[in-house]
Amino acid sequence: MKKAVFLLFSILSLTSCTFTEDIYINPDGSGKYTLDMDGSSMMAMVPKDSVRNEKSIDSVFSFKEVFAAKKDSIAKLSKEEQEKLKKLENFNMRMKMDYKAQQFLFSMNTDFKNVTELQDAMANMNAFQSMGKNKVGANAMASPESFGNNNSILKYSYNGKKFTRKAVIDKSRIKKVENDSLAESYKMIYASSKYVIKYHFPKPVKSISNTAALFSEDRKTVTIEYPFNEYMDAPEKLNFEVEFTK
Fold it and tell me: Which PROSITE patterns is this protein grouped with (predicted)?
């Protein structure tokens, strides 16, 4: 199993992935957040002989259950790391790796009472790595010091009249990432991958500040697609403000 996972992540550096940030907002401001990664395109490149005896994986777990089982280890972490873990308690994660169907999917999701609860969920995954849980997967999918980190803190707001998505550059992270040789190995992934934003609102959109946005027929769904390297190098390009019809 370890051999197959290592091989898959090695091939990942030569193929493209699609990341989709999906948010549903209800009339009362509550909703659901999902971050998906589809790396299925790389499965076709995996030599069949190398995974002939490997079993497919379809694993789903909640962080709250994991944290309960790891409470002794968590107690040894710093207060800052424990607070990061606390923010992940309501998240669920799924990893599906099917060699025959050539699927490789990774997803994490959570429900929220207010969209402001979603503060850089991807970055907080690094706290989970501190417990020593599957470091290969954690590094590749969610580590702020390596893959997927664009040195920003992501903030959302919604008050029924306006919605904003704003990435603020966090200068305290930049030096760490620049000194991380692992980050260099992901540049090939960034160049061929894409980042998709898909937000579903309870009201039709009147206007949006991002000119790259596409609308559904009822104007309640907004989709923005960017090359992943642009998302990494200039996260503010995905900032926008939405105004709704009355």
Answer: PROKAR_LIPOPROTEIN
